[in-house]
Amino acid sequence: MSRLLASAVLAAACAGVHAQDLATVCHATSSYDLTVEPNRLVFDRPTPAPTRVVLSDGALVTDGRSVALNEEDQDRLAVFQRDLRALMPRVKAVAQHGVDVAMQAVRQDAGSLNLDADTQAELDQRLATHAAELHQRIAASQSTHDWHGDAANQYANQIISDIGPLLASALGQQAVSAAMSGDLQQAAALRDRAGNLMSGFQPRLQRRLQVLRPEIQALCPDMQRLAELQEGIRAANGRPLNLLQIGQ
Length: 248
Known about the structure:
single chain, five-stranded antiparallel beta sheet, two-stranded antiparallel ribbon, 7 strands, elongated, signal, DUF2884, DUF2884 family protein
């Protein structure tokens, strides 16, 4: 879940910046990926065993072996499944807000470039298209596998490759016009502005994304509750499940 949140904002931000995510704010981590299916939850990881944990209506299967549970543990796992399903839309809502914050940050930074009307309109249209696509991807996603690093970076690179040349061309034209008119100082200033815009975007975005922190903090008690519900339950190999861990 924290991967979903962080990576979604990363992709939206076009800058390889992770928002304050569940791991940072709530100290909630997991070595598993999560896939939400209609009748079960599937947790998987490369190592160590168990590498595949399936929860379904209070039943527990680890690495293909059913785990005998007493009534109390069945009830706890049933509540775990219910509460985790209920939490996912809230995590997605934070990610959706992160997309909007990041796109608005791009618009605000671009506003300092004195773009001509046509370029500004084209930029707005492209950002709106990317935002709509990311919103749709987040809404449709049912697995943290969708947001692994390579996938998130791919989304970010698509956005960069789309809007980067547009802004560079607009600034280049302004610099050429200034140079041709004999204003070499203005031409140099435009080049510096472009460089400062890119180098300073990441820290500015991080500050703007702090608006998400209260929304993420609101998830922390639910994460703590999930961690408590799984305590003491073991896989078929005798190891604790540890589907979710809360650090200090």
